[in-house]
Amino acid sequence: MRPVSIIGVGCTRFGERWDSSLRDLVVETGIAAIEDAGVTGEAIDALYVGNMSGGRFVEQEHIGALIADYAGLSRLHIPSTRVEAACASGGLALREAFLAVASGYADIVIAAGVEKMTDVSSGVAADALAAAADREWECFFGATFPALYAMIARLHMRRYGTTREQLAQVAVKNHHHGHMNPIAQYHTEIKVEDVISSPLVADPLRVLDCSPITDGAAAVVLAPSDIASRYCDTPIRILASAQASDSLALHDRRDITTLDATVYAAKKAFAQARLTPQDIDVAEVHDCFTIGEILAIEDLGFFPKGEGGKATEEGRTSIGGDVAVNTSGGLKACGHPVGATGIKQAYEIVLQLRGEAGKRQVVDAEVGLTHNVGGSGGTALVHILSR
Hints:
By secondary structure, the chain is an alpha/beta fold. It has two domains: 4-121 and 214-236, Peroxisomal Thiolase, Chain A, domain 1; 142-209 and 239-386, Thiolase/Chalcone synthase (Peroxisomal Thiolase, Chain A, domain 1), CATH 3.40.47.10. The protein has helices spanning 22-37, 54-57, 63-70, 89-102, 122-130, 145-160, 164-178, 192-197, 225-228, 260-273, 290-299, 308-313, 330-334, 341-354; strands at residues 4-11, 46-50, 80-83, 109-115, 200-202, 205-206, 216-224, 236-245, 282-284, 324-325, 367-374, 379-386. The strands form two sheets. Strands 3-2-4-7-1-8-12-11-9-10 form a ten-stranded mixed sheet, with helices on both faces. Strands 5-6 form a two-stranded antiparallel sheet. Strand 11 and strand 12 (379-386) form a beta hairpin.
């Protein structure tokens, strides 16, 4: 396996992009990433695209060929592969691109992610997202993703003393970070009382505990590290790429307050990188709901089990804290176009490690981590990046 670096990145603005189609979003982000990398279409060996449910959201399948076509690469007959792992589709696309380069099978590879979610009603969108849970044993009995994560939150609160206010602090922090991010869906700061008084979705989770329905796309360009400097002054090394799985349904889990897929993926990633959680300066984690971030910072090893809420409340996950978590605003404030999220996370970490994150820059950031989850934890991917 040869070392791999990211040499270019691009990301659209996230939000309700009613004036843009799925293919418009892909073209926008693809051009940005290719220009950032300084490569030509002729240099690209392969394309991997994360997309969860184009067939439900825009009634379009065969996404790989579509994106190659509208990215202007179909005339070159470059292989383009759609990757699906629910909300972890983007992270898995990044892993597949990484493996293609690391194995020596390809040199210049694009990993992209896209989702266009706002062209359907909220009911259709919710039903499409529910397909990432166990349709037969969860959804058919009325469980939704807010309900599943609400059960996780309730048990975490009972077992570890996590408070309603600590959940809210996750949203407050991420909106504070997001208001400094020009691509974020939301630029409004909020307070703890705003979260607690927002409409109830699934007790204890309220509207401001939940990530939004979002349109957006992101892309990164990968190359072997030994030639990366030909294209980029500040290539970012991918030190580790790890994936793990767990049962699809919550009722089959060992412990629903721990996402074992995250735990195992993190252990693999830290072993590959020969680092520990304490070496991470900045992390983008999967906060589809506020309890999701608390689970992530515990399961990744940043804080002991049960202390994620307290650590958030104490500001230890804010910029300037022990580890800056979700400097982009996370899924909560930056937005969550499900197929694109894992790539957007890498985009944010690359900006941080390059020193190009503007007002939300983490001082002297050298090592970053991305954590992308599919469904309620059936799939998890962890990548570790470094200057």
